[in-house]
Amino acid sequence: MRKIKIFLCFLGVTLLFVGCSKNNVTSLDNSGSGQTGIIPKDAEDKEVVSPSDIVLRNFFLADGSKAHYQGEGNEFAELDIEVTQPFENYVVIYENNGGSLVRYIYKIEKDQIVVVEKKMVESKADFPALKELDAMTPMGIYLKTPFVKGTTFDDWTIIDTDVTLVTPYQTFEHVFVIEEQARDIVNRKYFADGFGEVKRESIMITDDGGEYIVTSTLKAVDQ
Question: Strand pairing of 211-222 and 66-72?
Answer without folding.
Answer: antiparallel
